[in-house]
Amino acid sequence: MKFISSYIAFSAPSGAGKTTIVKRLASKYPQMAISISATTRPMRPGEKEGKDYFFLSDQEFREAIKAHEFLEYEEVHGYYYGTLKKSVDSLIKQGKVVLFDIDVKGALSVKHHYPQAVLIFIKPPSRAELIRRLQARRSETEEMIQKRLQRLPFEYEQAKYFDYVVVNDRLNDAVLSIENIIIKNHHEKIG
User: Which residues are within 8 A (CB) of 161 and not within 5 positions of it... i.e. 6 or more apart?
Assistant: First the structure.
């Protein structure tokens, strides 16, 4: 399948399943590639440099900001996250559809730079389920989980600026819904 939009940005509260969904799409569609973000947060077990994130020190990140190397960047939960322009440019030159796994402000910034971008907000089925998922990850303290939950009202408010909102109750159903959105978007743009 050929995609008209070369940019699809996904945002969600932490624990909603956004990263899993993006990875599923990229593995199913070879013409899609995930934009690897840079971050100052510590590497989690199983993560790899350059595959999951570019892990930078605070100083390295600040130097990249000064050098205008980011398409967008944001401080979230005490850590910096950002999208390196050269990473996105490289994927576009390869003819890839770029999937952004990004916070809400970052997604809106992507839309500002690339108006043809499609923004998809992934929502958990409930606050209780989100808490259960965050606790099941076992990668964060209770204090960190509470910080993430405090951001929920802001993230949900920003969802109104997205093109689509998908509830991730069952992963396979959510992925299918997103595939249908991408196909629908493709047909609308060529129809």
Answer: 108, 111, 119
